[in-house]
Input
Amino acid sequence: MKQKLVLKLVLLGDPGVGKTSLISQFVHARFRHSYQLTVGLDISSKQVQLDDGRTVTLSINDIGGQARFAAIRHMFFKGAHLAMFVYDVTRAETLDNIKDPWFKELMEFCGRSSKTKAAIQTILVGNKTDLEDYRMIEEEEGIQLAKEINAKGHISASAKENIQVDEAFKTLAQSFFDEI
Ligand code: G3D
Ligand code: MG
Output
């Protein structure tokens, strides 16, 4: 019997950076204009085909507004294989917050604590590139931070215009296999 490989993916980043919008675009090919605060934990799944023809299922976890409760974050991170850090290119503080608290906390829960498990693979996404006139963060800064946190890469995306959204999820899924 052929086994289905399911990878758990978590999205991290400040409220309003576009995490839910990226998921909505990737999973449902849709962008919602009305702001909906994610309540609780929202899990959606989508199959992706990698370049080598391999298919994996991503279980995509969106933590939403409850991110301030430590106990919930703990459950959220548990067992994650992949993490996507998201910042908003029009708000400088959202990039600063990637390192601390988001990266720092992910490492506390999912660092190389277990000898048997591979470290979690990560990618950094700068979202809302369609808002070019309001851009506060140059792409170079994002690329630099991605290196500092040892992410697989940096992607400039727009959930609204569907630019580089599939690319971000696929690159992250692919990175799981680069490690094994
Ligand atoms: P979050 O899940 O990280 O909290 P959301 O963020 O996905 O809920 O998005 C927050 C707001 O940013 C929403 O606007 C959403 O429409 C907008 N947004 C998300 N991605 C993009 C993008 O790529 N470009 C632009 N221009 N806007 C984006 P509202 O106005 O509903 O608050
Ligand atoms: Mg959300």
